[in-house]
Design brief:
CATH class of the largest domain: Alpha Beta
CATH architecture of the largest domain: 4-Layer Sandwich
Number of domains: 2
CATH superfamily of the largest domain: Metallo-dependent phosphatases
Helix content: 40-55%
Distance between the termini: 95 Å
Order of helices and strands: HHHHEEEEHHHHHEHEHEHEEEHEEEHEE
Number of helices: 14
Radius of gyration: 43 Å
Largest sheet: 6 strands, mixed
Shape: rod-shaped
Structural class: alpha/beta
CATH topology of the largest domain: Purple Acid Phosphatase, chain A, domain 2
Strand content: 15-25%
Length: 513
């Protein structure tokens, strides 16, 4: 506000004082509200700069005029649509705040606010108090609509920047008392907000647990309907010839069969266009032919390295449910055909007298099939045990399964788990994996023996070694998917094996049968 305007306003107030009339009467006689507008602007300027002398002079003169003309009622700053007053008692203390707010073409809004109510409004609405919104504060005053409550705030000039204390408290309390009250209110607001947060968090957790409970009940219902349907008329593959023993043993690694996977990408993976149960069975028939050519074995270890079914029990989804995979069988068909395929393979090996002793080992699952494959493997182990009691079956519960053959230790795994691993074990042994394996071997107390780490997952054959162990990635019976063929290369498909003769290992593959 310009200094000349303030001086003119001072002259006006002095004239009002000289005429011995009130400011309200002057405004009524001259049909103006300028004094009230000027004093509001002067107060605003003083809040920004308290050194304005003419502004101070005008404010003091204005206050003197109010005191002179009102001993029990004091009119506050107002505008052309409202009139508010502070009602004081005989001792001069504010006991009530009254208001009259004019509305266009409607009756005026009149009423009064008690000291306690005004204290609540200032404390809840001020930025220095609870800093609630107008809507939130208005809920504590149900007698007024939100629009009328906003009018009351404007009439009393209550803004976010206002003090958290009403005028009567500022008049009656010392600065230290006000500071103590504000700290106490802040503490109460903090505790109240903390309790509200706890309640909200508990409600959120309850909703989450309720949803999980619904999902678990649905999964339990789905699993309770799980029914293994296997063709009872299984005819083993047999070659009419005697097989001779040569004092040798072999590990056959059936990895990443992905029964149920669908391939449509054409020439890059043409061998997998019609991939399914019959094609997987044809490929394993070639494996049996290859094993027969070696002659009989002392021990045949059949090792299931995971991801032998494509889905996790939910069609077109892997265990982490994070991306779509094309499939040509539903979840039940994948489970039934996988169980039937392994049953046929084991039965064929026994019927051909390939080995004196057969062991069936399996890792828990893979990153595609998850716990769904674990359940299928459990069914396979029980089925084989009932049909062939002489066969030893082992379904490992941990990520690494360990078995021994001719004083050699074999550590088998899929290569990537169904939950935690951001990246699976690498195709070629690196320093990080080497350190991890050293620590693991130390932890499980494996020393002074040949150690072989065998894994699947990457659908490729590789072999590397270090001082304490060698590291092998095995082929996939399935081979290349659309994703791997388009983004990397069309891998060979097949089955990897370790042939042990006189405690020496010869490594090989049955490829692209």
């Amino acid at each position: 506000m310009k200094e000349t305007t303030v001086k003119n306003f001072i002259n006006l107030l002095e004239q009002i004082k000289k005429d011995n009339i009130s400011i309200s009467k002057y405004c009524k006689e001259h049909n103006t509200t300028k004094p009230f507008k000027y004093i509001s602007k002067i107060k605003s300027d003083l809040n920004k700069d308290s050194s304005l002398e003419y502004h101070k002079q005008a404010l003091d003169l204005y206050n003197n005029l109010k005191t002179q003309n009102n001993c029990s009622e004091e009119k506050l700053d107002t505008d052309d649509i409202s009139e508010v007053k502070q009602i004081r008692d005989d001792s001069g203390k504010i006991k009530l705040y009254s208001f009259k707010i004019f509305k266009k073409n409607k009756p005026a809004l009149t009423g009064s606010i008690t000291r306690e109510e005004m204290s609540s409004i200032y404390r809840m609405y001020s930025y220095y108090g609870a800093s609630l919104t107008q809507r939130q504060v208005s809920r504590f005053f149900p007698d007024y609509s939100l629009i009328d409550f906003k009018r009351i705030l404007r009439a009393f000039n209550i803004t976010k920047a206002s003090s958290p204390f009403p005028p009567h408290m500022i008049e009656e309390k010392t600065e230290d008392e006000l500071r103590e009250i504000q700290l106490r209110e802040k503490e109460n607001d903090f505790l109240r907000k903390s309790e509200e947060d706890i309640i909200k968090n508990n409600e959120k957790l309850l909703r989450k647990y309720a949803q999980e409970n619904i999902e678990l009940k649905q999964k339990l219902k789905d699993y309770s309907n799980f029914k293994v349907e296997i063709n009872g008329n299984i005819k083993p593959y047999i070659i009419d010839n005697d097989n001779k023993e040569y004092g040798q043993s072999i590990n056959v690694y059936l990895a990443d069969i992905h029964l149920g996977a669908s391939v449509t990408s054409g020439t890059l993976a043409v061998e997998n266009i019609n991939y399914g149960f019959e094609e997987a069975k044809r490929r394993l028939t070639k494996v049996i032919d290859g094993l027969y050519e070696f002659g009989a074995f002392d021990t045949l270890n059949i090792i299931l390295l995971g991801d032998n079914i494509d889905c996790c029990g939910i069609i077109n989804k892997t265990a982490r449910l994070d991306h779509y995979i094309p499939e040509n069988m539903d979840a039940r068909e994948q489970a039934n055909k996988y169980i039937e395929l392994i049953d046929w393979f084991v039965t064929s090996c026994i019927s051909m007298n390939l080995s004196n002793k057969i062991n069936l080992y399996s890792v828990p699952c893979g990153n595609h099939s998850g716990n769904y494959e674990y359940i299928c493997n459990k069914a396979i182990m029980n089925l084989i045990n009932n049909k062939f009691p002489d066969i030893t079956t082992t379904l490992f519960e941990e990520f690494f399964g360990i078995f021994e053959l001719n004083s050699h230790k074999f550590l088998i795994c899929h290569g990537k788990d169904d939950q935690y691993m951001k990246r699976g074990l690498p195709l070629v042994l690196n320093d990080k994996t080497q350190v991890q394996m050293y620590e693991f071997l130390e932890q499980i107390n494996i020393h002074n023996c040949p150690v072989h780490v065998i894994k699947g997952d990457l659908h490729s054959n590789s072999y590397t070694s270090c001082k304490r162990f060698d590291y092998r990635n095995t082929l996939s019976l399935f081979g290349a998917s659309d994703y791997s063929a388009m983004n990397f290369s069309a891998n060979s498909y097949g089955v990897s094996y370790d042939l042990m003769i006189n405690n020496h290992i010869t490594r090989g593959e049955f490829q692209n049968m």
